[in-house]
Amino acid sequence: MIDHNIEECSTACFHPELTAQVKAAMPGEPLQEELARLFKVLGDQTRIRILNALYRSELCVCDLTSILGMNQSAVSHQLRVLRDAKIVRSRKQGKNVLYSLDDSHISDLIRLGSEHVQEEKG
């Protein structure tokens, strides 16, 4: 069965100047691998829920367990994954460890991703 939704070049349409320009502008393989790892970490619903909470406020593990309805070890595990990927950061405040999004780029990813999903539904 032929899938008519897949586009194929029916004629040779090779644009050497354009393809050379695009290829030169693309990041190197190591950077593309890092980007793929970032999106892989972001591709987990529990981690997205944590990031959505941290998008709104800096929180400790206990706050996150209450918000998400999860146990502390599960939240801590996900925070470790996010921290290792440099998506969240932590800081000590007295006996508590507070978590926040690592930087404005992560905030932008959460905001833009949410806007995109809401736009798709509208």
Q: How much helix is in the residues?
A: 55-70%
- Helix and strand content put the structural class at mainly alpha
Largest sheet: 3 strands, antiparallel
How many helices does DSSP assign?
Answer: 6
Write structural notes for this entry.
The structure is a single chain. The chain is mainly alpha-helical and 122 residues long. It has a domain at 58-122: Winged helix-like DNA-binding domain superfamily/Winged helix DNA-binding domain (Arc Repressor Mutant, subunit A, Orthogonal Bundle), CATH 1.10.10. It contains 6 helices and 3 strands. The protein has helices at 16-25, 29-42, 45-56, 61-68, 72-84, 104-121, and strands spanning 59-60, 88-93, 96-101. Strands 1-3-2 form a 3-stranded antiparallel beta sheet. A hairpin with a 2-residue loop joins strand 2 (88-93) and strand 3 (96-101). The longest helix is centred in the C-terminal third of the chain and has 18 residues, at 104-121. The mean pLDDT is 92.
List the helices and strands and how they pair.
Elements: H1 16-25, H2 29-42, H3 45-56, E1 59-60, H4 61-68, H5 72-84, E2 88-93, E3 96-101, H6 104-121
Antiparallel strand pairs: 1-3, 2-3
Comma- or semicolon-separated keywords:
mainly alpha, Arc Repressor Mutant, subunit A, three-stranded antiparallel beta sheet
Summarize the structure.
This protein has 122 residues and is mostly helical. It contains six helices and three strands.
